[in-house]
Each structure stands twice: as C-alpha cells, then as structure tokens.
Amino acid sequence: MTPNDLVARVRAGHRRLQALLADLTDSDVRAASPLPGWTRGHVITHLEQHAHAFARQADHARRGLLVDVYDGGAPARAAAIEREAGRGAEELRKAAAEACAAIEDAWSRIGDDGWGAPVRYRDATLLDTVYARWREVEVHLVDLGLEYRPADWSIEFCDHLVDFLAPRVPAGTHLTLADDDADRRWSIGDGDPVVLRGSASDLSAWLAERAPARPVAAETGTPPELGPWP
User: What is the predicted pLDDT for the residue at 102?
Assistant: First the structure.
C-alpha cells in the first residue's frame, strides 16, 4: 500500500467518525463505551488528542525535528482525556472535526520522499504514524459502541492488525488463525499448536480483544491468554 493510499484510508475513517458523531446527544456521549471506565466522550477525546499529537509529529518531522508525542508523557495524556471527556456532544463533534482536519493538513505537506523521516513515536518513521492512526481510528470507531463493528473492517486492515498484534501471542504457542470465508491463514509464533477458526474480522477482533460478531472456534488446542498491546 502506498503512503497516499494509506492516508486515503485514514481520511475515510475520519469521515466515518464524523458521520457516527453527527446525531449524538449530550446523553449519548456521556454514556458508557465498551471500554472499561471510559464513556464515549473519553473515546472521542482520545481520538481528537491523538490526531493533534500526530499532526505535531508530522510538522516537526517535516523540518527534521523530533518532539515527544504528548507533552508530559502518558500521565499528562490520561489527565487531559479525563479533563475534556465530559464536554457536550456539539463541542466534541467540533473538536474531533478540527483535529482530523489538522492531521490531514499536516500530512498533505509531506512530499513523496518524506514519509521515511524519523519521529519520536516508537522511534519509528512518519509512515508508521499513519499506520498507527489507521489502527486508532478503526479500532476506536468500534469502541464507540455505535453502528460500526469489526465486521466492517477491510481485509487489508485485518491483515495489518493481525501483524501488529502478533506479539500478544505468548511464547511457546504456535497460533494459526484460519479464515472460514477465504483460503487465508495467519500463522504466529512457535510451539504448541493452537488453531482458531472464524471470519477474518472475528479473528482479528479476538486478537484485539474486541467483541467478534460470532465467537471464534478452537479447532486445535486452547486459545491462549493474550499479552498486552505492543
């Protein structure tokens, strides 16, 4: 996938986000999300602040500079989310739209040869931040508990998510995820064999600890206890 193709996929996710938020009321955004301890307002605020943080990564990378993802690190990030999560629906809608526009504008200034620029995020590259934004948007759209589900994930996103989350599989386990809907199998790790069957979206949702449309089935072995997100 080219950088421009990837950016286009993130933009499409931003449009889906704005469509999902369009008719929400204050009560809706203050309702609990599927994420423990977070309301929808927390999820929206996280996506907003993540966009601004990554726009800043892009702006600095374009000038050959490195900057922390969040000033004050994880504690400051968590405090900011808590502080802003209680805003009303209209304020959250506006903030999310402005943040999405900011990151898209920052990316529009990156030339074709600029995506390999180093960033502070994971000591990676600017292109890695686009993949990270793709993950954040697609997964947290599901976490809003609205009309977007893992079943709506593209096969390209499922491929990427499984590859990214492979480190969650514990050592000593050879996990095979077998897609019932296509001749596709993901193989992770070495050791005792475990084969899980389901649709591509259900299998990738299981690996992300999100609710699949249908439970995945263990064909061989017992599903392992997954480690933390990488």
Answer: 98
